[in-house]
Amino acid sequence: LYALLIGPPGAGKGTQAERIVDRYGVCHLATGDMLRAAIRQGTPLGRQVKEIMASGGLVSDEIVVNLIRDNLDTPECSKGFLLDGFPRTLEQAKKLDELLDQRKVKLDAALEFAIKDSVLIERIEGRLIHKASGRTYHTKFNPPKVPGKDDVTGEDLYKRPDDNAESLKKRLAAYHEKTAPLCDYYDKKGILHRIEADNAQATVWAKIQNIFDGCI
Ligand code: AP5
Ligand code: ZN
Known about the structure:
By secondary structure, this protein is α/β, with parallel strands linked by helices. The chain contains nine helices and seven strands; from the N terminus they run E-H-E-H-H-H-E-H-E-H-E-E-H-H-E-H.
């Protein structure tokens, strides 16, 4: 399965990605997670993107295309991949097409997580993450078994630095201006599927399985 997720901040891409990689055995290539890992490790790349990410801006196309290129051929991706948060601009989508053409891979599906902006603030403000794994919780919608602690490791959960009202505004603006047009791009290729992402997690998951089961 070769698929990608398009949706605004807080739409539930990462949450559903956890289930998708589990069920379909594909790798999870999330550029946001990779960039946060670089920041955590204090690499030169991490230092370069830290401020931009915290403010809610997009990092350069070159940086994220390189991250994807470096990871596409890893053994974890041998059964397929799920791209989450990439591509985010038309330029990135075109570069992805090149990378896939070179590998003779065809995308099976692009899922659009459709959701109103007004729902997203509560999702973002209640989000907690486990830094090492990227596992995601919500204080109200998906609470951890022990408050503030990861279910698997028992380690502390954190808030993302860009999960505040001001950065969210900028992330939403970037989404509408730069990323939403990609839905048209993939619709023209005949692989776009729209999902109502303001439904409960289980409902969204059922819909995704329907779509992907028809692809494999
Ligand atoms: P990235 O990490 O991709 O963040 P994002 O796109 O803003 O998306 P989020 O991770 O915030 O949301 P999500 O859809 O994954 O929601 P989640 O499942 O966690 O990017 C971060 C930054 O990195 C960018 O701003 C940019 O600076 C940079 N970057 C990354 N990729 C880039 C690229 N390609 N080009 C340029 N720059 C790039 O869910 C949110 C919350 O809601 C959770 O608490 C969850 O538990 C809860 N929830 C999920 N589903 C439901 C549901 N159905 N009902 C109720 N609650 C739910
Ligand atoms: Zn995410």
